[in-house]
Amino acid sequence: MTPEKLVAKDSDIASFPLILDLLIEAINDPRSTIDQMVNIVMYDQDLCNRLIKIVNSPIYNFQEDIDTVEKALNVIGTEQLLSITLGSTVLSKFAGVPEDLITLKTFWHHGIACGLATKSIAKLKNQNNLDIYFVGGMIHDIGSLVIYKHTAEKAKLALIQCNEWGRSLIDAEQDVMGFNHAQVGKALLQKWRLPDWLCQAVAFHHNPHDTKVFEIETAIMHVGDFIAEGSFLGSSGQIQSQILDTKAWGKLNLPNRHLTTIYEDVYEGFEEMVEIFS
Ligand SMILES: [Fe+2]
Ligand SMILES: [Fe+2]
């Protein structure tokens, strides 16, 4: 079995939601207008209802009722639009994941923390596509969900080796299954036709020193994951703490005091994002 074959085996997972595809394309195109975004969102009645409900919730605390998708899109940013769409379209694909390995709630909390950290670092590094960094951080461990769904017993064995024996998760997975969750994540993101830099950053988020391309993007994803683990918000199933690759941190050339800024961004944004998903 290879990561590509594992991903292709599940046609539900392998198909990327069209609406997310269209939204990412529109957000990346500076010529896009709000009307185009509204037209895309209108494809999905459930999503429209969810957006209207969220913008009228106490999170936003607006005085007047927001009753159209257009008004809703004007008040929420593209990052939140993407995360809401991702949550309502991707999460349901993993409904069958055994709960003794991970609950989707804690898994998604870890993803949200990583998305916020990754975006914060990308901003400090003046990167473009901050929304895609956020989404990328949210799904950086999605390969684990594919593994938990389809090879639960082997995944359990790898987690035991990691959490009880102190082995690195990707080494344990490699030995038990012949591949690791980061490679499966890359195979899935490639299938979903997400940008090459994001596929590479996900593929090497545990071992950024092993990539020779997209080194900055991969270092951002690695440090984002390290901070998400360190924030103790949610979990990807791994209890053994993540080790910071100091070379990757060095590559980002950021003063150490920025670590505090990144943690603050994570804690500040977390509750709101969790509310949106609940
Ligand atoms: Fe991971
Ligand atoms: Fe992670």
Keywords, separated by commas or semicolons:
globular, single chain, binds fe (ii) ion, Hypothetical protein af1432, mainly alpha, 278 residues
Brief overview:
By secondary structure, the protein is mainly alpha-helical.
Explain this structure to me?
The chain is mainly alpha-helical. It has a single domain, classed as Orthogonal Bundle (Hypothetical protein af1432), CATH 1.10.3210.10. The chain has helices spanning 3-9, 11-14, 18-28, 34-41, 45-55, 69-75, 78-90, 104-124, 130-138, 142-150, 152-163, 169-177, 181-191, 196-203, 215-230, 246-252, 258-277. Helix 3 (18-28) runs antiparallel to helix 7, helix 8 (104-124) packs antiparallel against helix 9 (130-138) and helix 8 crosses helix 17 (258-277). Bound molecules: fe (ii) ion (2 copies). Residues 141, 181-182, 205-206, 236 line the site of one fe (ii) ion (FE2).
Q: Assign the CATH class.
A: Mainly Alpha
Order of helices and strands: HHHHHHHHHHHHHHHHH
Radius of gyration using CA atoms only: 18 Å
Number of strands: 0
How many domains make up the 3D coordinates?
1
The share of residues in extended strands comes to under 5%
**Overall mean pLDDT score?**
90
CATH superfamily: Hypothetical protein af1432
Q: What fraction, in percent, of the residue positions are helical? A: 55-70%
The second-level CATH architecture is: Orthogonal Bundle
In this structure, how is the largest beta sheet organized? none
* Count of discrete alpha- or pi-helical segments spanning 4 or more residues: 17
- Fill in the CATH topology: Hypothetical protein af1432
Please state the structural category. mainly alpha
Q: Uncertain segments of ≥5 residues (pLDDT<50)?
A: none
List bound small molecules.
fe (ii) ion
